[in-house]
Amino acid sequence: MKKITFLFSFCLLTLGAFAQTVQTFTASGQDDDPTVLTILPGDITVNGANPITALSLTNFSVHYYTPDGDDTWCGSWYDFDLAIVGGAADGTNIIGGCSPDFEIADVLDFTSITLTSNTIDSWSDLIYMYVDLSVTFTASEPPVCNAVLTNPLNGETIASNDGNIEWSAATGGVDGYYLTVGTTSGGSEFLATTDVGNVTTYELGILTGGITYYVNIVPYNPIGSATSCTEYSFTVAEVPGCAINPEPADGAVGVPVGNVTFSWEAPTSGPTPTSYNLYAGETPTGDDYGLIANFTDFNAALTLNGYDLELFWIVKPVNGTTEATGCPVWSFITESAPPTPANNECADAETINCGDTVSGYTTTATDNGGYNASNDVWYVLAGTANGEEITASLCGSDYDTYISVYDACGGNVVAGNDDFCSVQSQVTFTSDGSSTYYIAVEGYGTGSGNFDLAVTCVPPPACVEPTFTIALGANNCPTEEYYVDVVVTNLGTGAAVDISDDSGVIQTAVGLGSYSFGPYAAATDVNITVEDAAGDTCSATDSITTPLACPPANDLCVNAEIVYCGDVINGSTISATDTGNNASNDVWYSLAGTTDGEEISISLCGSDFDTYLRVFDACSGTEVVSNDDDFCDGSIAVQSAVTFTSDGTSTYYIMVEGYSSNNGNFVLTVGTCSTVGIEEYNASELFSYYPNPVNSTLNLRGQKAIQNVAIYNMLGQEVLRTSPNAVDSALDMSSLNAGTYFVKVTIENITKTIKVIKK
């Protein structure tokens, strides 16, 4: 429900002691909230204490976004529901209406009137709705004299000279107002007592600056006029003089485009202005210009666009809300367009060096391949040292800039920036010592203007260490000997580097690339040093440890070790390699010759690390099943187990690896696959069972008598058997460890299998 604000407006229709007036009700909010306007009998106040003889709903309107916004969207963006309870219009219910759907001739004696908004489109719209209630009443006494002057305020000393005055509505049943305005207290020199009708605004016409006006507002109705009314007064602001000494000067030529400061001096006559209105345009038509802005000081920072353009401007001092009149129109002509810059294209880039600052413009350049769709100019920087830190800055430019650096015309972007110092740009990058860098100066979006480009360079340190990576290379397995590959990625400040290991073997590198060292025995810590060949004061070191042993024979899927149902394999992934999936070492096994429908269970329970188990239908094939953690030893463990059904034709490839990057020793158990034959079935056709998972007792109910029940663990071992020979059977599983079990149920010599979880 929205807070309801009541606005009042009045019109007069008098017949004897009868009066008719209008009270306007309004509410605002989002159309999809919804916004609700509810009117109750006690909300009607325009009649004062006078009895109401007739009521009707008249004008309805709704405005979008602001109280006086667009009123054309009802029926397209939103509509309204009207419900009336009680009185002559009791039961009125209009759905999805707009004006004039809500004009109801007689709503006398209503209990409530409710208007509710509906959204039609998918947007949430801010709305202001208004509805008028026409009130006819019998006046029994004059209205109350409590109308208050609201504009100008009572006692205001710098009121506007436009002569528009406003007041609040009086209460007690108003038909209209008598308005008197004088230049003396109680006088009527400016406006003799006038019946202005049932309104709360009046246009007096232009008033004289420095004069105090006295206002009397007297409401009336058919019974008579209000008495003891308050007299209000206000003083009109004096009209200020005109500003002088404009800058740019009147008649100036060659005024720069871009950011320009307009300035003026205060008038030499009249009151001190409270502010200044600045108007400007391209034709000398005086007050027809658009208002640029109101300023409280003597200058304005504006942006001029366009060459050889004559512009006209006026500064009108303001006293309160009263503007100066008859102020002069000033004019100036902007500069002529400069020529297209010589460095408009990358191929014609202008040379710039470390420490240089250059000024230029992009206003008459063209877009020639920079980062944005804006005019650009180009500079070229060469001869920088390897490791030198280069900064190119556009701070101080007069427009929203963008700077980008390339390693060639049409080449790769080395660095780029939009905003660094406010909306101006700056980049810093490190030279590789060999590239020539091309700097594009342009604008954000399509902007252009005047710029300052400063390039500063910080020399590299005396020592920039070479960079390299080391990794295990080839090996001599099964002989446990290993090589280490050293890849030099940057020579640093040296022209060449020496690469050495702990044994003193040295290789000299004059370029980037890979260098092999070794062989080394298993579990050897190999320390590699790369240093400037000209001296040992600039160097970098790194180390690597060779494997404990050669990779197992089944390190790769293509070399998978064959296993069979019932096998238990002890193995390790410590010396294996990572062939994919998790970032851990892995080994492979293959299982073939299984029968269609066989339930195959594979477990890593008993392993000494956090394992992960996957099964594929081929090397690089589709993953059939996988598992991270499963039940081992009666509780959830970090070892893995899977169960899947064979298709009778596939060879299955079992991948043993670690969770994340874990490695260790494992126990791989392949269940006795043929022990539990699991057919494709729909067990519900023979029996039902609950609960699953089970705590202690599994309940079975057969369609007919249950002959036998057998329970098997994940290894295919029978752990419980019973012969109920009854429709209902309760299996006590409390002695079994937590885990996954297969339950075979036989009814009329038909056996079906279900899988249950024991908690």
The first-level CATH class of the largest domain is given as: Mainly Beta
Number of strands: 59
Average pLDDT: 89
Main pleated sheet = 6 strands, mixed
CATH fold annotation of the largest domain: Jelly Rolls
Strand content: over 45%
Could you say what the CATH architecture of the largest domain is? Sandwich
Quickly count the helices: 0
Poorly predicted runs: 1-16, 675-682
- Percent range of helical residues: under 10%
Could you say which structural class the secondary elements and strand pairing correspond to?
A: mainly beta
Amino- and carboxy-terminal Cα gap: 53 Å
Write down the domain tally: 7
CA gyration radius, whole angstroms? 47 Å
What global shape is seen?
flat
